[in-house]
């Protein structure tokens, strides 16, 4: 296992292409709702990375060794390429002219390919590293009440890709400092910086903790907090010779990680011939309209189930102040060899989860 | 009585390749090649300007990162750590108006990382432009080589023909001595000698023109090769520096995220400093490259342009000198013929012909 920097694994061709292909298809297989980061931009970022590796524009793919997803450097590459594409195309000239000179030197064939890459990239919507939006849901000027939805998509420092959605209502008054400012047109809004940064900083908290944290803000009534998390992703990629297998280097130390570890040293150790990938997709909601509080996430039980007896009373008192309930769920996409890991994880936790099959190409 | 000499030499067509040559056509062709070189030098000048801009931008980024590093190192200015840090934050686009307590350090560092990645990418993109120029110049060298070989062949053809004419001239002059003065035979031989002289004048000019062209194309090639070498070295330097910077940024990305989150939790400031040091190192490498290429441009490009000017002046002088000498020889020949004619007829000697009448 090659960890080349802090929490960073480097994949090269052809393993990188196989990994990106499986990861991209797992996003499709997972049937992601809008509670998750948008699938299409993420897939387009993965396709762009695969293309840039294929063309030799980049030599390695950097993957977060804990979450098994492309890391900040890899997420940034397509975005950077896109940002310089227009100017570079202007300097490169006509693609047909470059192609016509392909026989002259290897450079022109490579430039023609790069030209096509940049042209295609210009039209692509890529996955952002950070994207913060505030959307107005309802506005009642008479009562000074406005309902908003805050959406934050973030490549979290833990390596997973998160979409956080917060639905809240704000009642404005002269003496209160508003957390969200509504523009004069009554249609656009922006969170003030303190609130925006608080949401950003707290994005890795679970929905329950986040609900309580935000509900305390002045003039704000939170209705729903929803997190959609892509990752962790566990993979095993045989190298060309089949003698070595590149695996997620720092799998999480939880039920899934333990099953994965057992597979790696047991059945998985023999898997030298085909690539395997298991991706987890979690949702975590805290909302007023959830009827029953429960977790169907085999690796993230409810907070109340993790607390010791002496903490239970204080926790119950705290929760009574907030009328929301929590629901957690997780689904998996797995190649045939790793389905057993997902099944074993769910069986150990007593949860019933969707496990979608990811067929090898 | 007909001449014993082989007069077929006079009617033989000399097999010059190409479109023929004249002083004007040679100047035009050389000018075309020079224009190509000048365009490449112009491109380099534009790159030099761009290089200055990138250098300024990189210096700005470096300044920000150094400030981060200094404040985290506890070497803040008189206003204290937080006052200094607020100043640092004000450098980040879009964050200038925000107060320190409101900022997410993770978000801020990620934004700075993306700006730095873009700067390195912008610089790296010039490698392709330079390599493309280098290839264009090598293609140009191929073309010039074809011209050089063509000129050399033509010069050889001209020289061979001039030698043949010279031999014929000597033979005819020998025959002339053997015949009676003023006889029809002598007049016939003299007519042929005149034809030989006319041919000699024409093809000795060709010898000079093709020889001069060959030499000028060879010098052009030398300059084109220098330009190509300059561009190749520059491309290699840029590639080396940007690759090193890019690798360092890649290696720092996880640290930046991790430390950003840690800083958001108001902890591990020392770790943050270390992370920034890695990033600063990367920026140092990139700034070093820009600075070096700046010197490279300054020393090489200016020298190169000066050399081109010198070359142009020198070859013009050579060409003019050649033409002047050639004209003198030609005039001398014609004057000698006139002198002879005058001597024979007893008429007063005429002045040498004007250059336009030659």
Question: What layout of secondary structure does this protein have?
Answer:
The complex is a heterodimer of chains A (361) and B (358).
Chain A: E1 3-5, E2 8-11, H1 15-29, H2 39-54, E3 61-64, H3 72-92, H4 95-100, H5 106-122, E4 130-140, E5 145-155, E6 161-171, E7 180-182, E8 189-191, H6 193-201, H7 207-215, E9 220-238, E10 245-247, H8 255-265, E11 276-287, E12 294-296, H9 309-320, E13 325-334, H10 339-349, E14 355-357
Helix pairs in contact in A: 1-2, 3-5, 8-10
Chain B: H1 8-11, H2 23-72, H3 81-89, H4 105-178, H5 184-264, H6 269-345
Helix pairs in contact in B: 2-3, 2-4, 2-5, 2-6, 4-5, 5-6
**Tally of DSSP β-strands of chain A:** 14
Structural class of chain A: alpha+beta
Number of E-state strands of chain B: 0
Percent helix of chain B: over 70%
Taken together, the total number of domains of chain B comes to 1
SSE order of chain B, as H and E? Answer: HHHHHH
**Alpha-carbon Rg of chain A, integer:** 23 Å
Largest beta sheet of chain B, briefly? Answer: none
Shape of chain A: flat
Which regions of chain B contain 5 or more consecutive residues with pLDDT less than 50?
92-101, 352-358
How far apart lie the N and C ends of chain B? 33 Å
User: The biggest beta sheet of chain A, please?
Assistant: 9 strands, mixed
What fraction of residues of chain B sit in β-strands? under 5%
Helical/strand content category of chain B? mainly alpha
Query: What is the mean pLDDT of chain A?
Result: 86
> From the alpha-carbon coordinates, what is the Rg of chain B to the nearest angstrom?
37 Å
Q: Number of helical runs of chain B? A: 6
Keywords (chain B): Coiled coil
Coiled coil (chain B): 151-185
